[in-house]
Amino acid sequence: MSKKSLPTMQKQGKARLGDQIRSIADRLKQETDVQIKVTSKILGAAAQIAENHDRLIIEVVDMVESDLNLENQKSQKHIYTIDILKQQFKTLRDAKAHFNLKVSSWESLVNKLNAASCQTTITQNKPQSNQAFTDNHVKNVEDNYNNIEKLIVFLEPDVAEMFPNSEAVNEGLRFLIRVASKNCF
Known about the structure:
Helices cover 72% and strands 0% of the residues. It has helices at residues 5-77, 82-88, 92-99, 106-118, 135-144, 157-162, 166-182. The chain starts with a helix and ends with a helix. The relative contact order is 0.06.
C-alpha cells in the first residue's frame, strides 16, 4: 500500500462513519417526531376523556338536583295550612266533604291532612339474602297486589342497608336507567 492510499481510506472510512451517524440522527429525529405525534394524540384523548367525565358528572349532578327539586316540590304541595285551605274552600264543611274527613275545626283538618301526608311505610323487616319465603307469605303478597305484575328480588344485606324498601330500589334503578340512556351512543 502506498502512503497516499492510506489517508484516502481513512477519509472514506470517516465519510462512511459520518454517513452512518447522520443516518442514525435522521432515524432518531423521525422516531422523535412519531413519539411527539403519538404523545399529542394520547394527550388529546386524555383531554377528551376528562371533558366527557366532567360532562357526565355535570349531568349526574343536574339529574340529582332535578330529583331533589321535584321531591321538594312534591313535599311542599302536601303541606297544608289553614290559610291555604280557606283560600281553596269557602267553608269548613266544603273542605271536610272534599277530603272526606270528620273534624271540628280548620286546625284539626290541617293536622290530619299533614299527618297523613307525612306518613311513610318503611318496613323494618329486611329479608336476609337467600331467605326463603313461605308459601303463605307469597300468597299474601299476591293477594295484596292482584292484577299487578311484580318481581320478588332478594337483596344482599349491604344493599338492603342502602335501599330499605321497594320505593328506594325503584328510584335508584330509574336513576341508573336515566344516566345510562343519556350516555348511550
